[in-house]
Structure formats: C-alpha cells, structure tokens
Predict the 3D structure of the following.
Amino acid sequence: MEQSQKVVYYGLALITSLIGAVLILVTEFSGYWTSIITAWIGVDSAAAVILVPLALFLFYSVVINLLLIANPDKIQNKNLIVLAKFLCLITFILCIIGGIVFIAIVEIDGVSGWWFGAGFYGGVIGGILSFIFMYLAEKVE
C-alpha cells in the first residue's frame, strides 16, 4: 500500500513539474499595456536568462520523478531527490520574486495595465506542488 501511495505522489509531482516547465517555456510570464504598446515577458525576451533555468529545474524534477516511479531503488544517491525538491522550491521562490519585481517596475512606470501569464502561474504552482508532493512521498512509510 505504501509503495503505491508513493508512486501516486511521485506521479503527481511529475505531472505538476512537467506542466509548470512547459508553461514557463511556451507562454508569457507577464505582460503590460500602455496607450501605445502591448508587451510581454517570456523566454523570447531578456528574461530568458532566468526563465529557461527555472524550466530546466522543473524538468530535472520530471526526470527524477520518472526514475522514482519506474524503479525507486534505482536512485542510490538520495541527494538527487533532495536536489529535485530544492530546485522545485527555488523555482517557486524565484517566480514569486520575479512577479514582485515586475509589479514594482510596471507600477513605477505607470502603465495602463498588466497581467501575469501562464508562465508565471506554471512556475509558482508547478514549483510548490511538485515540492509538496515529493515531500509527502518521502513521508509515506
């Protein structure tokens, strides 16, 4: 019973990591509009320097969770699992910080409006849920 429960948690972590990583890579992180232009921030902008590594952090979690689902004993070095959890948490934290910085900049510039895109939500939700599911899988006995 406990092994199947672990597999469920690792499967949920895999799904949330994968969706989060894909959303970071293929959708905008945030955007804004003025009376003149509409612009967005994503991997096709200078923010790619930050966004691509965040997606890679979540893809690392996907790989680790796949290995844990296929054969939990295959990963002998438990530090790899701890690293996957840590990278998910870092993704969550950096997306939140990025969102706060974005809000501060657009509010100072006085734009007409702004929004968070699916990339932002994918990073925040994918990062924290993956961390939580991996943590719960570790606690199952």
Remarks:
- Residues 100 and 133 are 26 Å apart (CA to CA).
